[in-house]
Specification:
136 residues; alpha/beta; ph1033 like fold; six-stranded mixed β-barrel; 17% helix; 38% strand
Length: 136
């Protein structure tokens, strides 16, 4: 499976990234070392959307808190950058794709990242991954 993360990224051109206790949705909790991941710098945190592609070098599930009934699974990951995006792709570019049933990769990304605007790791389809690959 291929993944994408939207989170605060302070140094977009770094060669490696570490993301602690990231929320997971849409299959994101299955991320593992060796997986491909696309990195989106969260616009909520001053970022510019898609910035890089990388490979996960480590992934560790975060233990659930005792006594809390409903918890979103969280994972800490380390990523080695394998490419920088050559052109921008962010919330404004994906916002027009809001027909949730149209099957377009842009709609999938808009739904998974921006329908609920929290930062998260998500699993993406092969079609969405092929779409994102065109930005590199």
């Amino acid at each position: 499976m291929i993944f994408a993360i939207k989170t605060e990224i302070n140094e977009p051109r770094a060669k490696a990234f570490t993301f602690a206790a990231q929320k997971t949705m849409y299959g994101g909790k299955t991320i593992a070392a060796g997986d491909t991941i696309y990195l989106f710098a969260s616009e909520n945190e001053g970022g510019a959307g898609l910035i890089a592609r990388g490979v996960v070098t480590s992934a560790q599930a975060v233990a659930r808190k005792r006594g809390v009934e409903r918890q979103t699974p969280r994972v800490s990951i380390a990523v080695k950058r394998t490419g920088l995006a050559k052109r921008p792709l962010g919330r404004a570019d994906l916002k027009p794709f809001a027909d949730w049933d149209d099957g377009q990769p842009q709609t999938e990304l808009n739904f998974k990242f921006y329908r609920q605007a929290t930062n998260k790791i998500v699993g993406i389809s092969d079609e969405a991954a092929a779409f994102l690959a065109r930005y590199f």
